[in-house]
Write a structure and sequence with these properties.
The protein is of the alpha+beta class. It is built from 23 helices and ten strands. Strand 2 and strand 3 form a beta hairpin.
């Protein structure tokens, strides 16, 4: 039975903690002559806020204990069951006031079909986006930006995702194109570049990918050579598939540079701010793409492009780490943007299902159709819940450690979008396949999500290896002893016996996660706690079985990553649904049903993955997959003889 006094205490902590997420958010300004957001009262409020001492406003904690990395150790931070929220009503109303003109602009001034057909965003549409301040969403106020925190940025992404081409153009500009200047730029660099980037007078692009280096960013060949006088780098090389590459004025470019490490010359990646005006920058023709056709994607070539040394971002040789930080920092918003477009599409498809008749009945009356809508709604709810939980972590700390969580959001949301949009087309039938309607465009646009900002395959390995590395540091001595059973027979026997008992009776539930959630979610909380404990044992087993060779066990790593993703998704939906039910949000009972359904499905997937991890490579088909693939590669393609082949 749950302690009601303890539960009430947790709700009070929720209110206090949610305030901490947003106390440093700053005042939002939206540059739009139509919005009237910048009233005199808001300007006065901004001036007053700037005069409040940091001790009164509350300074952010520097960093956090990494939540999902610790879950690999079986450690669960119960604070994550307190869902973040905007507790200040004025700030909440201000955000909603910002949303209204944006929704109106996308509804009245954006012709997505025309953009798709012409494979170009009209100049007047781009100018409208600039006037609304959307090119400076996360740029600080002092440089002319909107200074949006992660939560507000994610909320705006729900709207801009209504047009895939626009969403990509804006994301390429600010989520990656100029993000390096925000993360590593010095004061002079920020003062020089950010104002024009915030206004949209200049557009930014991110130049990392090359013909021979996609996900393997460390293998880039573009080179920057320092001049003899030490004042200029000369940049030579080419980049491919660069979003905004043909329209950008400012590029964040990654290139190999020669550095001296311990007296020895080595090639290391450095990052540079490159202006098109420097010269030597040329483009190939725009790529003709499957989806997001209106976004500009080109090859960018640098031929003896002179770059002043003061345009190095961060330290020479630190570019690879910066590139990873840039990519890691923006992935979370794919959850909110994906959920935004998916909710819109579900609404449109539901309207069709409620009006279209087959066999004398509306489509909405058929069980298989109901199941499709339910699964899409559960997916969208989980996507949104994970995205805003991650945004809350980012907003709470100066240097948040949540790259793993952001990668999880990206993986789950991109795959959820692709599957759900496909299901919508299935419900729509012929309508979904016709270019006269927008649905097939949504499908084409959604496919890039599984590739963007790190392929999902690479990100799964990132999630698993980051978690294992974190766990390995803590379990180093234990794993070393378990891998040498002859020298440590007592430990091996006790560990084996403990695992057998846990498998037979289930792990002990000593975290009491149910005490931090609404009582009606008790069984789901206990299932989550049990899964966390089983996951910890699986991590320990994998480290013991493979040691440092675990990096080669990619199919096992995928299973670990998928379990971790479901654990994070379960945490997010339980946290959110409990909060919604406790404060009495409209349709909160529906949210509880969505959360319970996700938890059931996630638990089924977790149990299957745990079973396959326990079975080993011969029992879980890993070895079969390897042999089949090797035969294909050896034969240069599909190796089985034709179905009609015969030995006469």
């Amino acid at each position: 039975m749950m302690n009601s006094k303890h539960f009430l205490t947790r709700q009070l902590i929720s209110l206090a903690r949610s305030a901490r997420y947003f106390q440093n958010a700053g005042t939002i300004r939206l540059r739009s002559t139509a919005s009237n957001l910048q009233t005199e009262n808001q300007k006065q409020a901004t001036e007053q806020d700037s005069q409040v001492p940091s001790t009164a406003t509350g300074k952010k904690t520097r960093t956090n204990k990494p939540f999902m990395k610790n879950v690999f150790l079986g450690t669960f931070d119960k604070e994550m069951l307190v869902y973040p929220e905007i507790s200040d009503k004025e700030e909440y109303d201000e955000l909603n006031a910002m949303v209204e003109p944006l929704e109106r602009f996308f509804s009245e001034s954006v012709d997505s079909k025309a953009i798709d057909v012409a494979a170009k965003i009209p100049e007047e549409t781009l100018q409208g986006l600039k006037d609304l301040g959307l090119f400076g969403q996360q740029i600080p106020l002092e440089y002319g930006g909107l200074a949006l925190n992660a939560t507000k940025y994610a909320r705006i992404a729900e709207i801009t995702a209504c047009d895939g081409s626009i969403a990509v153009t804006l994301a390429a500009h600010q989520a990656i194109g100029l993000k390096g200047i925000l993360l590593a730029g010095n004061t002079a660099q920020k003062e020089k570049y950010l104002p024009k980037l915030a206004s949209g007078e200049h557009v930014a692009a991110f130049c990392l990918t090359e013909p021979g280096s996609g996900s393997d960013a460390a293998s880039i060949q573009t080179r920057a050579t320092l001049s003899e006088d030490g004042k200029t780098f000369y940049l030579n090389g080419g980049k491919i598939w660069i979003s905004n590459g043909g329209i950008a004025d400012v590029f964040t470019v990654f290139a190999k540079t020669e550095v001296v490490v311990d007296g020895e010359k080595k090639d290391k990646v450095s990052a540079f701010i490159v202006e098109r005006a420097f010269g030597g920058v040329t483009n190939g023709k725009p790529e003709d793409k499957l989806g997001i056709r209106g976004s500009n994607t080109v090859e960018v070539h640098f031929e003896n492009t002179p770059v002043p040394v003061e345009n190095v971002l961060g330290e020479v040789g630190s570019g690879f780490k910066l590139a990873m930080n840039i990519l890691n920092s923006g992935r979370f918003s794919m959850g909110s943007s994906g959920a935004g477009i998916l909710k819109k599409l579900i609404t449109q498809t539901a309207e069709h299902a409620c009006t279209r008749k087959q066999f004398g009945r509306h489509l909405s009356e058929f069980g298989l159709i109901k199941e499709k809508f339910a699964k899409m709604a559960v997916t969208a709810y989980a996507m949104e819940s994970m995205a805003y939980l991650t945004a809350g972590i980012i907003d709470m700390y100066e240097e948040p450690d949540c790259a793993v969580e952001a990668a999880m959001v990206k993986i789950f949301s991109s795959e959820g979008c692709w599957t759900s949009v496909s299901e919508c087309l299935q419900i729509l039938g012929g309508l979904g396949y016709m270019k006269e309607y927008p649905y097939e465009r949504f499908l084409r646009d959604a496919r890039i999500l599984l590739i963007f900002e790190g392929t999902n395959e690479i990100l799964r390995l990132f999630v698993a290896l980051q978690g294992l590395q974190h766990a390995g540091k803590q379990l180093k001595e234990l794993v070393k002893k378990l891998r040498n059973p002859l020298n440590n027979p007592g430990l091996v026997m006790s560990t084996a016996w403990s695992r057998v008992r846990s498998r037979a009776a289930g792990p002990s539930l000593n975290l009491h996660l149910n005490e931090d959630l609404h009582p009606s979610l008790k069984s789901e909380a206990q299932a989550l706690e049990s899964s966390v404990a089983k996951f910890q044992m699986a991590v320990e087993n994998i480290l013991t079985r493979y040691g440092n060779n675990v990096i080669e066990q990619q199919m096992e790593l995928k299973r670990l990553a998928d379990i971790a993703i479901d654990l994070y998704g379960t945490t997010a939906v339980l946290s959110r649904a409990s909060r919604s039910y406790c404060i009495g949000l409209r349709n909160a009972d529906h949210e509880m049903m969505l959360a319970k359904t996700f938890c059931y499905e996630a638990n089924q997937r977790i149990e299957q993955n745990l079973k396959e991890l326990s079975a080993g490579s011969t029992g879980n088909m890993n070895e079969n997959y390897r042999q089949i693939a090797d035969t294909i590669f050896k034969n240069g393609g599909f190796a089985a003889e034709h179905a009609l082949a015969h030995n006469w």
